[in-house]
Q: What sequence folds into this?
């Protein structure tokens, strides 16, 4: 009986502890911190919760710049950018941008913004000639992809300052440029922002890795002039420590449309100007590891002045068995008949002649 009572009391104590209430009388039970019931969130889920920047940060940034009368609302008259951008920020369509608009936009941005992820005029295709690419670099020098044809293969890297995978790959891309810089020319192309405040997708609270460090939230507006985009490209190149040329796409996003490059993408152009590697659209298709494998294959061909297609064709010819139709000259010679034996000498047949010596 005593054992049964003790077990019952122990069960009650464990039940009270699981519910967060004391098992014995507590003078101040309301002040006790209750332990949450249920499984803990996995680290990956916690990290996903931190990827999107709090909308308060983006709102504070815009309010400090555009709310001139300090009434907590940004009207169309106060906002100097285009009506299209203002309509994107005005999530509830009441004619003014407020903090609630940023909350609603952050909630819907990851679904609505993805519609613009893969929209482009035309997409560069594997095996075809690379699209035209004529831009100016961050230093103001002309950049023309066609000038490398027949001289050197080209790695083309598209990205922007607010693009997380592009920034996180800075060290790996620089390492590839150092290792394969003698074999291929590396070019970075700066396109429109991936996570601008007024862009298609909300800004990210990355702590994005850049050259071994972690940054705070990148609050960047989509460039309004070419000078603003060039300034962002210079900042991006400096922070990522890229030591190869960076071209800047125009405000018409012509290169982005021709290459289907937004938000980030990797390409490899062979000696003959044809695309031998087309990485998938970012973020998931941005894979420097795949590019590295193609560079390792290509270095063997480029060392002999061959394209990857020519090297593959040569290897297939060397490894394939000969299929040449045999000619008459290749036929084996017919067997020759044996020479006839000499006739036997006079005498008994089958016996050697007798010697005439004495």
A:
């Amino acid at each position: 009986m005593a054992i049964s009572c003790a077990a019952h009391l122990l069960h009650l104590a464990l039940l009270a502890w699981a519910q967060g209430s004391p098992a014995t009388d507590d003078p101040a039970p309301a002040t006790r911190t209750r332990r949450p019931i249920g499984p803990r969130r996995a680290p990956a889920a916690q990290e996903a919760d931190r990827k999107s920047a709090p909308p308060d940060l983006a709102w504070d940034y815009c309010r400090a710049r555009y709310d001139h009368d300090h009434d907590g609302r940004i009207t169309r008259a106060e906002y100097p950018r285009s009506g299209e951008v203002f309509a994107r920020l005005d999530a509830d369509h009441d004619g003014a941008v407020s903090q609630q608009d940023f909350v609603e936009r952050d909630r819907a941005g990851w679904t609505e913004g993805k519609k613009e992820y893969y929209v482009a005029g035309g997409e560069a295709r594997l095996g075809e000639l690379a699209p035209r690419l004529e831009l100016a670099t961050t230093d103001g020098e002309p950049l023309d992809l066609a000038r490398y044809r027949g001289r050197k293969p080209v790695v083309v890297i598209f990205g922007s300052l607010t693009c997380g995978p592009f920034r996180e790959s800075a060290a790996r891309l620089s390492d590839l440029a150092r290792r394969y810089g003698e074999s291929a020319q590396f070019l970075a192309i700066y396109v429109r922002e991936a996570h601008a405040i007024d862009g298609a997708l909300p800004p990210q609270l990355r702590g994005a890795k850049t050259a071994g460090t972690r940054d705070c939230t990148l609050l960047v507006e989509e460039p309004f002039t070419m000078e603003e985009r060039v300034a962002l490209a210079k900042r991006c190149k400096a922070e990522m420590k890229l030591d190869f040329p960076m071209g800047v796409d125009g405000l018409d996003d012509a290169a982005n449309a021709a290459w289907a490059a937004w938000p980030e993408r990797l390409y490899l152009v062979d000696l003959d100007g044809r695309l031998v590697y087309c990485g998938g659209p970012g973020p998931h298709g941005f894979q420097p590891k795949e590019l590295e494998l193609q560079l390792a294959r290509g270095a063997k061909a480029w060392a002999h002045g061959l394209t990857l297609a020519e090297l593959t064709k040569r290897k297939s010819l060397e490894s394939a068995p000969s299929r040449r139709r045999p000619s008459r000259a290749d036929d084996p010679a017919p067997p020759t008949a044996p020479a006839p034996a000499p006739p036997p000498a006079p005498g008994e047949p089958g016996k050697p002649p007798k010697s005439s010596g004495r």
User: Anything to note?
Assistant: The domain at 48-116 is CATH 1.10.238 (Recoverin; domain 1). Residues 20-52, 117-121, 206-216 have pLDDT under 50 and may be disordered.
